[in-house]
Amino acid sequence: MSSCGKFKHVIDGQKQHWNKMYTEDPDFFGEEPSYAAKKAAEIFKKQGKLSILELGAGQGRDSLFFAKSGFKVQAIDYSENAIQAINHKANSMGLSHSVSTVQHDIRKPLPFAGESFDGCYCHMLYCMALCTSELESLFQEVRRVLKPNGLNIYTVRHTGDAHYGKGIYRGEDMYEVGGFIVHFFSKEKIEHLAKGYEIVSLDEFEEGELPRKLFLVVLRKYPQRSIIARK
């Protein structure tokens, strides 16, 4: 059993933890879009990517920002309360035509046909309580549902973050701090997970009061012919 697998019961309990948090604080992350979403929107627009899949959409602050910016958004979260919050906000803002939602555990195959989206976005979803083996599968699932040359834009907390190595060890590069399990990324892990993608850019930024230290990563899906040519 991997070091991650030994903590499966704790990792599985994160869903209840997030549901409780979303119930107690309807705007836990605030209402304003994240810095990452603003940067991603710029990149998506410049590249002509209009249909966006957002993984781990939370309470919808970035989903709604994308919708207001002219994108068609498919939002996924595994918290029932998060999905309900997004639907309520989208309806009240007149954006239900631009935002679709689905409750889904991203450790399972994505419920979409291949080549369905121009881009995929997620802000800190990949650094949640996911084992590396689960991340490998998820990255390939994202690749499957992206159109050729589609973009996978994501952020993760990295190993230079002040919380890395602190709190309760939960396997691999995961630590639990304040009830939340965080999987911290190194540049080597980013490269490892980028199979079938081109790493377009890898930048660092800070967010929040700690501050959290994050990578902003832009991946481009290689067309199938490019992968064959590289063998």
Describe the structure.
This protein is of the alpha/beta class and 231 residues long. It has a single domain (5-230), classed as 3-Layer(aba) Sandwich (Rossmann fold). The protein has 8 helices and 10 strands. It has a 7-stranded mixed β-sheet. It has a 3-stranded antiparallel β-sheet with strand order 6-7-8, with no helix packed on it. Helix 5 (80-92) links the parallel strand 2 and strand 3 (99-103). The chain starts with 7 loop residues before the first helix and ends with a helix. Residues 225-231 have low confidence and may be disordered.
Name the beta content range. 25-35%
* Strand order in the largest sheet: 3-2-1-4-5-10-9
Number of helices: 8
Q: Specify the biggest β-sheet.
A: 7 strands, mixed
Helix share, percent: 25-40%
CATH class: Alpha Beta
Radius of gyration: 17 Å
**What's the total number of strands?**
10
Uncertain residue segments: 225-231
**What would you give as the CATH superfamily?**
Vaccinia Virus protein VP39
Number of domains: 1
SSE string, helices as H and strands as E? HHHEHEHEEHEEEEHEEH
Q: Please report the distance between the alpha carbons of the first and last residues.
A: 32 Å
CATH architecture heading: 3-Layer(aba) Sandwich
The coarse overall form would be globular
Q: Mean of the pLDDT scores?
A: 88
Give the helix/strand class: alpha/beta
